[in-house]
UniProtKB/TrEMBL annotation:
Membrane topology annotation: Multi-pass membrane protein
Principal location: membrane
Record keywords, A-Z: Cell membrane, Membrane, Protein transport, Translocation, Transmembrane, Transmembrane helix, Transport
Annotated NCBIfam families: 3a0501s007
TM segment ranges: 18-39, 78-100, 120-137, 157-178, 190-211, 231-249, 283-305, 325-346, 389-410, 416-435
Compartment annotation: Cell membrane; Membrane
Cell membrane as UniProt keyword: yes
The protein's name in its UniProt record: Protein translocase subunit SecY
SUPFAM superfamilies attached to this UniProt entry: Preprotein translocase SecY subunit
Role noted for this protein: The central subunit of the protein translocation channel SecYEG. Consists of two halves formed by TMs 1-5 and 6-10. These two domains form a lateral gate at the front which open onto the bilayer between TMs 2 and 7, and are clamped together by SecE at the back. The channel is closed by both a pore ring composed of hydrophobic SecY resides and a short helix (helix 2A) on the extracellular side of the membrane which forms a plug. The plug probably moves laterally to allow the channel to open. The ring and the pore may move independently.
Description of how the protein assembles with itself and partners: Component of the Sec protein translocase complex. Heterotrimer consisting of SecY, SecE and SecG subunits. The heterotrimers can form oligomers, although 1 heterotrimer is thought to be able to translocate proteins. Interacts with the ribosome. Interacts with SecDF, and other proteins may be involved. Interacts with SecA.
Organism for this UniProt entry: Gimesia panareensis
One GO cellular component term noted in the UniProt record for this chain: plasma membrane
Length: 455
């Protein structure tokens, strides 16, 4: 394996792509810790610490949001919003492309249409960033509910709030630019790599603060306080989930395809048997991100209503049921239902059996036992419905593993999220995609892939 890694830097083009990608990721990590102006960071950290100690506090909610957005909004840095506004804008335009005819026509125009949609996406990202960053700065001015402003004395005016808003917006636009540069000149998917880098950077901190630091503060051995048995089980869960995620992510249902024979004079061409691979997890990690984001809304709504009407037992019960960090029965059931819904929804957007059947028909290929056209499309749709059910079950299990680990082993939920759940799923999926793209460069130059045997 070490020899294969040295090969990566022997190929000039691949070496430049890898070094550029590492440089841009390093720039992202440095900007991750540049604080916003006019914000009292010490008071903010103290306020967030108090909020995190409360059940379902907003500080804990922000930790969950930061997991998916490569952000550091809890520290109010220039990259505080992360890349989530750009992802939100991309999702909006992708969904609108299925119901809004002008966007649908642009999607079918090829490269020129995609460039136009990307331009609209950037404009929408700026609007979303301005709204979200101003809301956050305005919330800090109100003290996050503590009643004491977290903006430095003398800088609480509208002008300074707008400066901080524009700074956060510019930070997200710069992250968007970094992602596009990685796509164009680096290796891998830029946006996904930014999210992965943010998750990996949080893993050591989460493990230290929740497992090692408490034991050191109490002056006892790590195994006697934290529980060596729990650490071993957590390590086994980590290995199991990694292997399982790789198996399901790479899993495919191969549909046999027969190409028609063509006779030209004495020559016969075609007639080969091939296969059409359909991914088991066609939707990737997007259903989990969508479901987690959507479940934030009932939490904020019921939390606000329970504070307005403190005498209502029903509202207090709903507030507790939808707290992201409590992961109660109602929250878990809603989470699984939304994951199934978004799995089928996202698969329906990204996979069109009618177009696939028409493409097979145009290339003179067919599925044995099924007529080209409508019968083939119906068969492909039925197969995709079945394997999407399996993929949704896989995502649901991965999503609730942190809850099970946190409940059964008494481990901090954020640690369980990083080492045995959604965060791990994102990291493994992005790394697999990165390895595949590196392998494509190696194979073109007659080298074996990173995961291939030299024998």
């Amino acid at each position: 394996m070490l020899g294969k890694l040295t090969v990566l830097f022997k190929i000039p083009e691949l070496r430049k792509k890898i070094l550029l990608t590492l440089l841009l990721l390093a720039i992202y990590r440095m900007g991750f810790w540049i604080a916003l102006p006019f914000i009292d960071q010490a008071q903010l950290a103290e306020t967030l610490k108090d909020l995190q100690s409360q059940q379902g506090g907003i500080g804990q909610v922000m930790q969950v949001i930061s997991l998916f957005s490569a952000s550091n909004i809890g520290q109010s840095t220039i990259f505080g919003l992360g890349i989530m506004p750009y992802i939100s804008a991309s999702i909006i335009f992708q969904l609108m492309g299925t119901v809004y005819p002008p966007l649908e026509r642009l999607q079918k125009e090829g490269e020129a249409g995609r460039k136009k949609i990307n331009e609209y996406t950037r404009y929408a990202t700026v609007v979303i960033c301005l709204a979200q960053s101003y809301f956050w700065i305005h919330t800090l001015a109100g003290g996050l509910g503590s009643g004491k402003s977290l903006i430095l004395h003398g800088y609480g005016g509208l002008y300074f709030q707008l400066v901080a808003t524009i700074t956060m917006t510019t930070g997200t636009i710069f992250l968007m630019w970094i992602g596009e540069q990685i796509d164009a000149y680096g290796i891998g998917n830029g946006i996904s790599l930014l999210i992965m880098a943010g998750i990996l950077a949080r893993m050591p901190t989460a493990g230290w603060s929740s497992l090692i630091e408490p034991a050191l503060q109490k002056g006892v051995a790590l195994g006697t306080d934290t529980g060596i048995d729990r650490l071993l089980i957590l390590a086994l869960v980590f290995v199991f989930v990694v292997v399982w995620v790789i198996a399901i992510t790479q899993g495919q249902r191969r549909i046999p395809i027969q190409s028609a024979k063509h006779v030209r004079g004495r020559r016969v061409s075609g007639g080969q048997r091939q296969s059409l691979p359909l991914r088991v997890n066609q939707a990737g990690v997007m259903p989990i991100i969508f479901a987690s984001s959507l479940l934030m809304f009932p939490y904020f709504v019921f939390h606000w209503m329970s504070q307005m009407w403190t005498s209502s037992t029903f509202l207090s019960m709903l507030d507790g049921a939808f707290q992201p960090m409590s992961r109660g029965f109602i929250y878990t059931i809603s989470y699984v239902v939304l994951i199934y819904f978004f799995c089928y929804f996202w698969t329906a957007i990204t996979f069109n059996p009618k177009d696939m059947a028409e493409n097979l028909k145009d290339y003179g290929s067919f599925i044995p036992g099924y007529r080209p056209g409508a019968r083939t499309a119906a068969y492909l749709e039925s197969v995709m419905v079945r394997i999407t059910y399996v993929g949704a079950a896989f995502l649901s299990l991965v999503a609730i593993i942190p809850t099970l680990v946190s409940t059964w082993l008494g481990v901090n939920f954020m640690v369980a999220s990083f080492y045995g759940g959604t965060g791990l799923l994102i990291v493994v999926s992005v790394i697999l995609d990165l390895v595949n793209k590196i392998d494509s460069h190696l194979v073109m130059r007659n080298y074996s892939g990173l995961l291939e045997s030299d024998l």
